Amino acid sequence: MSKRKLNAHDVPEASEPSSPSAPAEHEEPKRQSAKPAENSTFSSFGLEPRLLQGIQKQKWSTPTTVQEKVIPLALEGKDILARSGTGTGKTAAYLLPILDKILRRTEKRVTSSLILVPTKELALQVSRLAGRLAAFCGQDVRIQNLAGKESDVVQKAKLAELPDIVVATPARAAANIGALSLKTLATLVIDEGDLILGYGFKDDLETVSQNMPKGVQIFLMSATLSTDVEAVQALFCRDPVILKLDDLEKDAKLVKQYVIPCSEPDKFLLAYSLFKLQLIRGKTIVFVGDVDRSYRLKLFLEQFAIKSCVLNSELPLASRLDIVEQFNKNVYNILIASDETELLGSMTKDTEESRPRKKAKKDDGKSDSGVSRGIDFRDVSCVVNFDLPAGQKAYFHRIGRTARAGKSGTAISFMIPKDQYRKHKPTTFAGSEHDEEVLKKIEKHQQPGQKIEDWSFDMKRLEPFRYRFADALRAVTRIAVREARIKEIRMELTKSQKLSRYFEENPEELEHLRHDQTLNHPARIQPHLKHVPDYLLPGGRKPQDIGFVALDKPKRRFVKGKAGKKVVKGRNGKIDPLKTFNARGKGKK
């Protein structure tokens, strides 16, 4: 293989043509500089004009670092192993070269690209972005997502139409070998390579590798270069170009991390204070320990008219994606996420994937966070760890949702000291027992220049709010939480497109579900909690004198009773015996 050098624009330049499928066996992998090129634009890559229109519609002004490095090498046909942080544009970095090659080919329509991702949510996210980039390409680019819940018959029928790009989990791809023709495959992408093996897809990857022709261009994209990535690389790549790209402006992107030691009920008081007093601004993701906690916190915040949405594993896949989309569109500024590994991991358990597998590694609590990997959250200014995760790895993935694309961010964690654990059973969370040990591990694994600071929050200043907070927290009972969970699932069922035909044939079933939606809220709403009186605010401002306000009391009707006694009737027409007595005493007038 001929050596390549960088030109004046920091783009690899070939001295003579060479085949990417025949690399020299003893040649060292070439490492490219992570330094971005100056004045780089998408048009400088020589992409097909219709793709530039799609890029313009996405309102992307300049390519990110990973796009600057990956796209030119991909257009040359290189195998690429790229490590780049979340939110740096890895998906577009491999989609644009794939779409460009499809638009420029002259042969008949074939399935030329296969994109493997670990979860259904990522598959839908990738296929949607590909569709948006190819919005001006008409029928020249056809994309098929195999990670949905269609039947095998429907999927095989769609594959028979030979879509240009197929997006799937490894299990779906392996199960459809035959209907999914790999003989004409030109490009294979393995996205989130550090998660693929962690979700138990090793056997499926081997099946794909055995049925794949030689000379296929490989993209292996990952947020880390772990041993799992090396195992995937050994299966598919011989001599890839390795790009170790750190996040843009790393020093400027350091997340400001704070920890607040507090008691168990004070977590709810702090959450109320942060949002109601606007101590934090912008879009916020609040991570809690389980589904029950997510609804408990949501119902608590609703007592104070604080809007939020819940993201957890109980909701259908389409509902979760819709919630993320609403959050990204600023419909909600607070998203409460139950941080469970099965939130994304369970999405890989399809009906055809129930065959026996090798035992996965034992979950030691340090596995990747469910919500914090794979889902694209935009413009998150703050992450609140309402409940600390079980390990430091999940913590760093959580806070990676903020401070993306060169923007700053804040992470606030509530920590329960051991002497405060189980002091208030209604708000106790079992995972908080080891908060102190987890915090020590997090501090130990901090990168240079990063640290967790104590937020010197004076809890005494929140004492005036305690009676309001306690009243609202008491209203969120276990029964209220259970009813809220059931009610939301029923609401999502009525919105499900897959059930629309069933409801058309059985309208009475839909009426039963709708009847439950009109019930009163499971937690008692108290209107007076919506507003914060000035005298409760820190600083002790006194309420302003707005003058005399007359009380709107109902007029009393006086009726002569027996023996000429005065009788008072209320608004309902009934006699009020307590108001018929003579206040001056018997016989006095």
From TrEMBL:
Enzyme nomenclature, EC number: 3.6.4.13
Domain DEAD-box RNA helicase Q: 40-68
Pfam families: DEAD, Helicase_C
Domain Helicase C-terminal: residue ranges: 254-463
Positions with biased composition (Basic and acidic residues): 349-367
Gene3D superfamilies: P-loop containing nucleotide triphosphate hydrolases
Region (Disordered): 1-42, 347-371
Domain Helicase ATP-binding: 71-243
Cellular component aspect of the GO annotation: cytosol; nucleolus
Record's keyword terms, sorted: ATP-binding, Helicase, Hydrolase, Nucleotide-binding, Nucleus, Ribosome biogenesis, RNA-binding
Main location: nucleus
Motif (Q motif): 40-68
GO MF, any single term: hydrolase activity
Enzyme class: hydrolase
Function in brief: ATP-binding RNA helicase involved in the biogenesis of 60S ribosomal subunits and is required for the normal formation of 25S and 5.8S rRNAs.
Family classification: Belongs to the DEAD box helicase family. DDX56/DBP9 subfamily.
Record-given protein name: RNA helicase
